[in-house]
Amino acid sequence: MKLDASELIALLKGDAQADKVVPPSGYTATLTLFTSAAMAFLAVFALALSLATGRLADRWASELARSSTVRISAPAGQMDAQTRAALEVLRTTSGVASAKALSQEEQRKLLEPWFGPDLPIENLPVPQLIEVIEDSSGYDSDGLRLRLSAEAPGAVLDDHTRWRKPLIKAADRLRFLGLLSILLIALATGAMITLAANAALSANAQVISVLRLVGAHDAYIARAFVRRFTLRALSGALIGVVAGMVAVAFLPSASETGGFLTGLGFQGWHWLLPFVIPPLAALVAFRATRTAALRRLKELT
Amino acid sequence: MIELQNVAYNYGGGELLSDISLKLAPGSFHFLTGPSGAGKSTFLKLCYMELMATSGRVQVFGRDVATMGRDEIARNRQRIGVVHQDCRFLDHLPIAANVALPLRVSGRDTSAEEANLKDLLSWVGLEDRADALPAELSGGEKQRAALARAVIMSPDVVLADEPTGNVDWEMSKRLMSLLVELNKMGKTIMIATHDLNLIRTAKSQVNARVLRISNRQLQLAGADL
Lengths: 301, 225
Prior knowledge:
Chain A contains 10 helices and 4 strands, in the order H-H-H-E-H-E-H-E-H-E-H-H-H-H. By secondary structure, chain A is of the alpha+beta class. Chain A has 2 domains: about 1-60 and about 165-295, no CATH class; about 75-155, no CATH class. Chain A starts with a helix and ends with a helix. In chain B, a hairpin with a 2-residue loop joins strand 4 and strand 5 (about 65).
């Protein structure tokens, strides 16, 4: 790695003369540029996906975990007594920041989307809902269930884990797939640049053997190739990243109604993250070309 | 300079050269002759380390070639000028750049050597052809350019493989006189050729030894040439 670093510096400083000893290559250059740009473009989306699902998982985890619901289904006569008992239990439970029985008005609002605005809610056996807000330490849900069943038999605690767990799991899996895609993109870029470099090395076999015969060191010959491919990968990736970011910027912005899909994008400092891609692509190209060149040179004396 | 001890070379289908011993002393002038296919080029390749002896020991500048690393081989090649039979130029670079190539790859500042390069090109009579591409040169011009490239690093040894292969007699004599001139400047010279006239001409100008490869062996040819 240390040798690599000094090589990389020598490479960035550049040697216009060394560049000229290898004839310019037309279409492999364009192909490398295009491949690198396309891969970087895809990488931007994979990155946006990972970040968005990451945000989503975090949001679901925190929002849903912070609140839970106690539902009380009891005969009309016992409703008030059980509600009071349940509220008392909740008030004395550590980890519960607040508990509030929803008013009839609030419950009507919740049902409105399903039953319309004129629902005579007072005549229906609608269960009473209590909204429970946790503090940061959280409560012990099994203990709370036991105590509720003792004090208010009609009370059912719903701490949303049922909903939360599969959603968070899905979001985490998506994030993992996004990161895996980035890794695969990096490997595919490396593979394609290796192929392109090998093509260039084969096309220039004559040049390489002449250079070797007049006393060129391996590092010198390799550098002429490595420099080209590294710079091509770097500039291609820059183009791809900028195009990808423009595309992401023009996605519809996150909204309540749009849900998950419209949240796909970058937020805040995350907009800087895609700029890691071009140097990474350059590094991948550097290593791929250097390995290919040195392996090829070993075949010559 | 270059020393071979009981060297053999095997291409895979039997030995081409066997049990060859030779010591190239500084300032010596050797001709290497023999029928084509006898192994003259192979012998020279062993000397400039393009091929590795399959048995025996080759020493270049006092170091055993078998123990040299790749970079050491590269460094030692910078001290040996080689005129290849087929010249071996970079076809996309003009002659001046091709002649200066050894300077370039060894990391020397070519702009500082500009005057040197110019002198060298006029020494081989190519000052007007500096910007021409190799493909635009005649056979004789190519050979002279190859000679210029071989000596630009001011090497201790110059090896030439059929340097007069594709050129007419006048040009051969001219190339030979350049090589003799180099020898007078103290360079060790070895020329592989099958042109006996050329050897006779050179022997009048320089104290040359003639080696002959036949039956896989290296022999000192008699003075009767």
